[in-house]
Amino acid sequence: MKIIDTFIRMYRHSYYRIWLFILGLFTMLPIMFYYWRRKNDNDNIKLIENEVINELEKENLKNILFQEAMIHVINKQKCFNQNVPKEKQQIEAQDIANNKFADIVADLTKQRAQSEGIENFSITYCFKKMYENPLLRILSIIVSFPMYILILVFKSPILKYIIERLFMMIFVLFGVTFLVFTILYISPMEPALNILGQTATVDQVEQFNKVHGLDKSYIVQLFEAFKNLITFNLGNSYQGNEDIATSIMNKFPITIIVAFWAVFVSVAIAIPSGIISAIKQYSSFDYIFMFIALIGLSIPNFWLGLILILNFSIELQWLPATFQVNNSLSLIMPALVLGTGMSASVARMTRSSMLEVKYSDYILTARAKGLAERKVVLKHILGNAMIPIITMVGMQFGAMLGGSSVTEKVFNINGLGSWIVDKQFVPDIPVVLAGVVYISIVVSIVNLVIDILYAFIDPRIKSKMKNY
To answer: Average pLDDT of the chain?
Structure first.
């Protein structure tokens, strides 16, 4: 059964074995007890196995298998016109012979054990016998329901991968929180003086530190930060006493809208440009594109934003100079500024990735079969070059979701990037910590989505994911 097979595969990994015992304690304890009572049966299997090995070694089977494997390796290398040193031939032949010998030993041991009525006794064997009993199976599922949930998760490679990455994200969040809090703690800036002003009295500063817990030791404050992270209590900011969670929820929609349109502009410009440049390599378009891409990488966002405002807002009065929530036209210039910078990198990546694939054997085969050039370019060349392109777009989108503080300042966008940067100079420790945790979560989730997309785009990754 699939549950039994999955349990056996999980039990081979020490990491999952621990979780099987933790989540299935009331099932694993009786199994362990039963195993220890009958573990002598396993010792008998070992004795039979040793007898089989001694008999086969007396027959010089290892040497015979090695000679056969050596002939096989030499013939294989002659077939593929490979010139391999003799030592490597012997190592490969020895591995083949050892594997065959181990298989023969396992088969003979199993046959003799069955003829003598002895079974290979192990924890996994005990679980199998327990699960095959309907009454014990139902009882086990009732008392160890979390363990069976884990087994079902392990059965699905994609779901298992997602759960593992989310679990790793917890450690990333704690590590980032520790580093950022430590840096802020040793920072020479004083939040009390920055907020109350340089004319604040000693009593006012002490009262401020006491109210916000800044008078406590480093360990106590760090513990409080970890506790707030676990309980999702982001607290209130030092400056303005605003609820941090509410502020993030209010600013997040603005940030994600700007990021989405910036990525849309970037992809719309970069992918077609990169494709044409790669197909028409060393043409006039290719040289012009490379020059424009270099300019796009060199232009600072704040300068481009000011130029757009000067021309399209002040001179032509076509677009609003600042961002307005209910005015979609106010998104055009921020999206162009952010998207233009992104498009240069994405276009260069598209060009280089397609050039790596363009002269591959399977592309020549596709053309030789008479496939239309458009199909060859879009399906075979671009399709096989998409992995680095998706990585680049995904990472830049994650960075956008973290907030683009310079562009937000230029266009007066009340987004997360400018908000976190402003609070950093106080330093408003709860806001900065919450902002860092938010960015860590966003980047981790974007990376996870990118890795999952790989499996749908590249069949090779999909096949590896099935065996994950």
So the answer is: 79
